[in-house]
Amino acid sequence: MSEPVRLPAVPAPLTWWNTPAYHVVEGPDRLVVGAGPNTDVFGDPGGPTRTANAPALLAALDGEFTLGARVEPDFRATYDAGVLFLYVDEDNHAKLCLELSPQGRPTIVSVVTRGGVSDDCNSFTVDGGGVRLRITRTGGAYAFHADTGDGFWHLVRYFALDGSPRAGFLAQSPLGEGQTVRFSEITHTTTPPEDLRGGK
Q: Could you name the domain of life of the organism this protein comes from (predicted)?
């Protein structure tokens, strides 16, 4: 077990699942994570390929919460991504990603993995290399949102995930030689949005 990482914006100690190439805590609400080459968390629904080696820094957050951050990947190769991550165990987890598409466009992508089998949903492309993302737990459900710069929190996904997942930050480089993701403006609240589809 790695030594806990303290990030003042998150009200619980964070620990690593998979070791990063490097990491730096920059002040109370900023984190830099380096992903090594060929790192991902994905179980291909169409075949036997399964990867679970991307570094994730995770905290056990009690009750209802919203965890948000501005996510800025380096985007050196296709499918490089900065991710807000929910992790139950190696077979059950969920990702909200800012990911580089095969067309070379930053794209909001969500992935939910159950029993080791992932789905993969591309939602929309965005301009620029940084976007605010957030994860909300309300009751027994989870919501993924993205703010593309227009001040509206777009609902990306609303779903259930069995177990008690830890939440945090992940960097991946499935086809590349590694990359750096910067997480800034990290926030945690215990009050979920009143209307998950209302944009606030």
A: Bacteria
Report whether 100 contacts 77 (CB < 8 A).
yes
CA–CA dist 72, 169 (Å, integer): 12
Q: Where are the domains of the chain?
A: 15-187
Closest to 34 (Cα-Cα) out of 177, 190, 191: 177
What would the DSSP string read from start to end of 161-175? -SS--EEEEEEEBSS
Tabulate helix, strand, coil % of the chain (nearest 5): 0, 55, 45
* Cα separation, 15 vs 12, whole angstroms: 10
Any bridge partners for residue 100, and if so which? 106
How far is the C-alpha of 135 from the C-alpha of 146, rounded, in Å?
9
- Residue 2 is which amino acid? S
CB 83 within 8 A of CB 95: yes
Instruction: Assign a CATH topology to domain 15-187.
Output: Jelly Rolls (2.60.120)
The span from the CA of 157 to the CA of 59, in Å, is 21
Cα–Cα distance measured from residue 24 to residue 12, given in angstroms and rounded to the nearest whole number: 17
pTM to 2 decimal places: 0.96
- Tally helices (H) and strands (E) across the chain: 0, 17
Instruction: Classify 176 as helix, strand or coil.
Output: coil
